[in-house]
Structure formats: C-alpha cells, structure tokens
TrEMBL record:
This is Bromo domain-containing protein. Residues 76-138 form the Bromo domain. It is found in: Nucleus. PANTHER family: TOUTATIS, ISOFORM E, TRANSCRIPTION INTERMEDIARY FACTOR. It holds the Pfam family Bromodomain. Keywords: Bromodomain, Nucleus. Its main location: nucleus. Gene3D superfamilies: Bromodomain-like (1.20.920.10). It comes from Micrurus surinamensis (Surinam coral snake). GO terms for cellular component: chromatin; nucleus. Residues 40-54 have a biased composition (Basic residues).
Length: 149
C-alpha cells in the first residue's frame, strides 16, 4: 500500500489521498450537474452521502459503552496497565499534584463509564490519553518504562 518504504510520516500520504478523493467527488458532481433532473426532487446520487453522514452521527449508545467496557477489561488484564489501574499514591509520590493538574487512572475511567457519565466514546478516549500524557509529564526520562508502552 505504501510505495515508499522509507516513509515514516503518514500525514502527507493522508493529505494526498484526501485530495484525490475530494477531486474525484467534484468530478462526479460536475457529471451529475449535466444529468436531467426536476426542481422539486433531489437526484438520488446525493442521497447516500446524506444518509452516511447521519449514520456517522447516530450510534448505538449501549454498543459503544459495552465495547469500551470490554476494552477496559482487556486493559486491566494486561500487565503493563498495572501502574495506571489506580490513582497515584500521593504518599509515595508527594509532588505528583504539584506537577499534574488533572490526575486520571483506569479505575476512574471505569467508574465514570459505569456511572454513565461519558456522553461519547471520544470523552472516554480523552481520559485514556490523559492517563498517558500525565505519566509522560511526571516521568520525563525517555528511558523510563512508560515510554516503551
């Protein structure tokens, strides 16, 4: 798929593919504009795009919550998650709150999910990212185990 084996940055590839898709869809729209249609009825070619957009916005709330719960269960089973399963012990790390403004751990994420306090999967994702960003801020040593996870 990636022709350049030395490629290490996916963003230029993504942008090129996005540009191609957008230009292809513009060409299709130009072809559709030449097709006869009525003024009161929209052409069928444009309806699937709208339906896809609506599907992307509406998702089964219970399904994503179940999937996130399953993911958290897998994370808790993983040995590497051990330092992040519970809140940081402030007795063991008394300066933690001086460095980290918003602590987060997987137990808190699980409790928040079970309490129904996440409105979307992206909110849960934001908290999971916070766990790792906090650990990297608190442990700046690049040789630390956290950087290999």
């Amino acid at each position: 798929f990636i022709k350049d084996q030395a490629c290490y940055d996916i963003i230029p590839l993504y942008n090129a593919m996005k540009k191609k898709v957008l230009s292809d869809s513009e060409e299709e729209e130009e072809k559709d504009a030449d097709m006869p249609g009525t003024s009161t009825r929209k052409r069928k070619e444009h309806q699937p795009k709208r339906r896809l957009r609506n599907r992307a916005q509406s998702y089964d709330i219970q399904a994503w919550k179940r999937q996130c719960q399953e993911l958290l269960n897998l994370i808790f089973q993983c040995e590497d998650s051990e330092p992040f399963r519970q809140p940081v012990d402030l007795i063991e790390y008394p300066d933690y709150r001086d460095i980290i403004d918003t602590p987060m751990d997987f137990a808190t994420v699980r409790e928040t999910l079970e309490a129904g306090n996440y409105e979307s999967p992206s909110e849960l994702c934001k908290d999971v990212r916070l766990i790792f960003s906090n650990s990297k801020v608190y442990t700046p040593c690049k040789r630390s185990r956290i950087y290999s996870m």
